[in-house]
Amino acid sequence: MKEDDFLKEFIRHLFPRVVLRSNLRLTYTFCLGGLAFTAFLVLILSGALLLFHYQPSTERAFASILYLENSVPGGWYVRNLHRLAGNTFLILLFLHTLRVLLTGAYRKPRELNWIIGFVILCLALFEGYTGYLLPMDQLALWATQTGMNLLATLPFGELLRSFLVPDDVGQPMSLVRFYVLHIAVIPLCMLILCMLHFYRIRKDKGVLPYL
Q1: What is the residue extent of each domain of the chain?
Q2: What pLDDT sits at residue 4?
Q3: Using an 8 Å Cβ cutoff, are 68 and 53 in contact?
Q4: Rounded to a whole number, what is the distance in angstroms from the first to the last CA of the chain?
Q5: How far apart are the C-alpha atoms of 34 and 55, rounded to whole Å?
Q6: 3-state secondary structure of 113
Q7: Degrees (nearest 5) of the Cα angle 188, 194, 200?
Q8: Could you give the CA distance from residue 134 to residue 56 in angstroms, rounded to a whole number?
Q9: Which CATH number fits the domain 3-14+30-204, given the four candidates 3.90.180.10, 1.20.810.10, 1.10.10.10, 3.30.1540.20?
Q10: Can you tell me the distance from the alpha carbon of 3 to that of 1, in angstroms, rounded to the nearest whole number?
Q11: Per-residue pLDDT tens for 72-117?
């Protein structure tokens, strides 16, 4: 697979040259994948705006959220848009995964794309979890602590916990690691996988047989 072909197929999937009239009708797919990707783009845009005011430190994180909501014009709207887009993104991914299962769209030749989509769903859940800590309010601390305790019960859970929380939940090092994962590492991985997912759809002629 050439890199140029990979990027071209991704762009062509987002902006097809031709759209059949029959494909504009509402069907059992409900364009759930496309809607989920749209929510993902809203998350990236709103998250980028939040970065201008959020301070990833144990002393300033919560105060910066309060400042954003109460003193920044439109700050309350942007933060709630980010939160709503995150919930919508997860719901659409779950529905899309359920649709794939119920319609058997994971069968040959789409096995690889099914795995890619499932990994995207797992990363989306982890992305939401890492973002939950960032406001550093009491609810965020309790929820993250509960998640870390559950993680420790899994195989290799203690190792993962020590990586994510080297000091303690809400302490400087753990907050920085959650912050970096949330704004950079996980979104980049998800974007690359989404591009590969769309590339495979076109190659498998799964839902766009006229391309």
Answers
A1: 3-14+30-204
A2: 62
A3: yes
A4: 18
A5: 32
A6: helix
A7: 140
A8: 7
A9: 1.20.810.10
A10: 7
A11: 999 999 999 999 999 999 999 999 999 899 888 888 888 899 999 9
